[in-house]
From TrEMBL:
It is an enzyme of class 7 (translocase). Pfam families: H_PPase. This is H(+)-exporting diphosphatase. Residues 1-22 form the signal peptide. Coiled coil: none annotated. It is found in: Endomembrane system. One of its GO terms (cellular component) is endomembrane system. HAMAP family: PPase_energized_pump. It comes from Grammatophora oceanica.
Amino acid sequence: MHRGAFTAISFLLGALTSMASGYLGMKVAVFSNVRTTVSAQKPGWTACFNTAFRAGAVMGFALCGLGIIMLYVTMLAYRVHYPSPDQWVHLTECITGYGLGGSVIAMFGRVGGGIYTKAADVGADLVGKVVHGIPEDDPRNPATIADNVGDNVGDVAGMGSDLFGSFAESTCAALVIGSSIGVTGGWDAMVFPVIVSAVGIFVCLLSSFIATDLKTVKAENEVESALKIQLIATTILMVPAVYFVSIVYLPSSFDLQATVGDAVFTLHPWEATTCVAMGTVGGLIIGLVTEYYTSHSYSPVREVANSCKTGAATNMIYGIALGYKSAIIPVLVLSVVVYGSFTMCDMYGVALAAIGFLANLATGLTIDVYGPVCDNAGGIAEMAELDPSVREKTDALDAAGNTTAAIGKGFAIGSAALVSLALFGAFVTRIRHASNDALFANGVNMLEPLTFAFLIIGGMIPFAFAAMTMKSVGLAAMEMVMEVQRQFDEKPHLLDANPTERPDYDACIAISTKASLKEMVPPGAMVIFTPLLTGIFFGVTAVSGLLVGALVASVQLAISMSNSGGAWDNAKKYIEKQSPDSELKGKGSDIHKAAVVGDTVGDPFKDTSGPALNIVMKLMAVLSLVFADTFFAVNGGGGVFNLS
């Protein structure tokens, strides 16, 4: 009875924290957009870069701080009811609701926000840029306000709640798998995963001064390197910092019950540190590989830009191929991290590696929020009809932000894969505990007919989800296109150089809002109800197959979709930077129009379906973990049909 109530309270706290951090991020972004535009009017690059960077930092540090404080205070409160180390296994099971709460809000924030922003963006691009040839964010375009609002909804609130969910779930998974550590190592050893995240905040805080004070941005070509240095510096500083806290908080040796089998491992602080370091370095490698495939400073994106010479079709082919190719190295890195951490510390090592991935979360979020702030600053410069040099400056900041946003998505996808695997390990641990080792004592047998059947079904879920979200954006974008065209037809003077009429911005905002609220329900419901119905009707072996299938397919699809979209976007920006006399003809040419088509298709790839697949694998896994006892209660884990 108490465990159910405590889990429900954790769920509410996780959901409220996720909503609060998203709201805070949007509030800060809205205040900072205008300030960045004003700073861009000043000579030099330092002021405008620092304004946008600090806006992201507020979101990053607030979210991490809120998340850790709420989680730790909740654990201390539950410790009153579960005072002895033998009872802490129940405490960690109650805490799993915190991760679920964050993840459910993230699902609707990510999917709803993605549909909102991309419906407006695609609609504004198709009618404005492609048909009528007016610039992006031109105040004559009725969808321009909805587009700018959408950047805050999708890229700030959506990304924030997504990464908060990853942080909460990775911590919950590590606590459940490592609950046996408390018996021999004490409270400090058991909460080591929370301590690692807390140390990450201080490391990110120190590193942030590099960009704003020590090595300031003085020229356009320094913007991207300044953001990259942040990621590299936090990764380098994180390893010795984690080793120091492992020596202080972990005993010289402590025991851990194996996830599979009856073995008890004796672990040491250096092994825990190595697992965290593997995750941290693995995250950096995935981030840098993502940058290589999505930045127009390198050949892959330039190849995509050159493919636009022969039209939109070849642009699409090159972009999709780039996305598939970009999944190779990240998947190999994830495989090495999983193998290394599992070999060293069993499934607890995988959970620590997931926390290592998110150790510099504050910096990751800073860089991520920086992008939409610069994007909106450019929109404000365009709408306020400021000097074109202001827009050029914000566009340069935004181009770097686009690449770093892709790096952020790479981090998010990689961490989601490890979090999902760690949650799966926690699910197996909890079922073993509930069944007194009657189930999963020797692991999950993938060759059982029921498990393998649901493995294939699990692999289908990400594709069904991507199809639903892509179509939702398409439907909403069509409605937006028709509304914008209707306004241009009814008010032809809107297209004059100095229009005497004002567009109806509210009508476009209403379309995006209604579409996002309506269209996010079916994909969200599918992800939430699939593991629940599978567990209740087919049992825990079917759930284990479902989770593994969804994890394997989601990782590949998420990386390829996010990177294809990022590459199309930056290929378009690369063409826009060229002069009319150059090979790529620059803005307004047929080559540019082909690039705009690619960018428009890439919008739902990189900002709706791709990133939301992180949440598919995490949410299904954390739901299964929270409802593990419920599944076991139905025919001893066999489900209603009891087929196994």
